[in-house]
């Protein structure tokens, strides 16, 4: 059976416990999982870490814990897919913003971004076409070389 520590907690261990718990909460993990991870690092049981958190450390980090919970909530909120939007989706979004009278600067910024993305798309399509033509030329050369070797 593995021997677990039973000595007093240091300030550094309390900080590690707090940072780990807050990180897990922010990222949507559980406090229990955080206690298990800290326990492994400090050679303490998850129960000891949980007791220390609830009895002492949590009180020192109430504001940070609330902020971590808010950040977790923001991460869980659904966001529209960024890459699956069509140009028509973007136009509709901009028109909706304009109808509400919100963010004229934001609308202009997004229009510029759409224009930039269209130019990037055109450039990538040209590059793709060039690569495809080069590929066809290489395949033609390889086919001729195969025929000559036969």
From TrEMBL:
* Ranges in a coiled coil: 100-148
In terms of InterPro entries, this protein maps to: Homeodomain-like_sf, Myb_dom, RsfA-like, SANT/Myb
Tell me where in this chain the HTH myb-type domain is found. Answer: 1-61
Could you identify this protein by its name? RsfA family transcriptional regulator
Myb-like domain residues: 1-57
**Keywords annotated in UniProt:** Coiled coil
Annotated Gene3D superfamilies: Homeodomain-like
The record, for SUPFAM superfamilies, names: Homeodomain-like (SSF46689)
Q: Which PANTHER family match?
A: PRESPORE SPECIFIC TRANSCRIPTIONAL ACTIVATOR RSFA (PTHR41302:SF2), PRESPORE-SPECIFIC TRANSCRIPTIONAL REGULATOR RSFA-RELATED (PTHR41302)
